[in-house]
Amino acid sequence: MKKISVMLLGLALVVSLSACGKQPTEEMGATRASIDAAVAEGAEKYTPEDLKMINDQMDAANAEIKVQDDKLFKNYDKAKEMLAKAKADADALKGKVGTVKEEMKNSANTLLGEATTAVADAKTALDSAPRGKGTAADIEAMKADVAGLEEALKEIQPLIDAGEYASAVEKATAIKTRAVAVSDEIKAVQEKMQGLK
Fold first, then answer.
1. Distance between the two ends of the chain, CA-based, in angstroms?
2. Is the pTM of this model over 0.70?
3. 3-class DSSP state of 120
4. What pLDDT is stored for residue 108 in this prediction?
5. Which contacts (CB < 8 Å, 24+ apart) does range 130-134 have?
6. Which of 169, 146, 145 is closest to 156 using CA atoms?
7. Of the candidates 139, 131, 141, 167, which has an alpha carbon nearest to the alpha carbon of residue 152?
8. Is 155 helix (H, G, I), strand (E, B) or coil?
9. In the predicted model, is pLDDT for residue 19 greater than 50?
10. Which long-range contacts (CB under 8 A, 24 or more apart) does 151-155 make?
11. What is the pLDDT of residue 133?
12. 130 in Cβ contact with 189 (< 8 Å)
């Protein structure tokens, strides 16, 4: 009787250990699907650091699974926890991508408006720039700059429409900076001319 009890206890132990020994394939698939959904939302473009962190979590979980695969008595509980965290982070990232994308779009549109205003201001300043000996060449160069900025402005809206918000922000910022510089140059010349009177 004692021998049967020991065998049953041993069998129960093997069964309980083998229950933990099944590879978490469902959890792996669900986590991968969540990561893929975040990528489809644009995580690579808008939140690359967060996506890298989640992929690193997935890699660590896969490494833990490999470690357990090589053991006689496998226990995938740690790997399951790691996969659950990676899945939760990927699900949260999907929402974050939408928020970041909207913020970048708003920023790009705002900067487009500011750049457009700055170019218009520079053009107006050029029209009232003092003309005289020594300024004609400078004014012509500034007119060419402003004309180039007006052309460059036309490239920003298509970038925004294509979801290339970072490029649109960069280009709009450069245009705005140059247009403000032209206006400042004209203002400096006007102040210099008034000082000579």
1. 120
2. no
3. helix
4. 94
5. 130/189, 130/190, 130/193, 132/193
6. 169
7. 167
8. coil
9. no
10. 153/112, 153/115, 153/116, 153/119
11. 60
12. yes
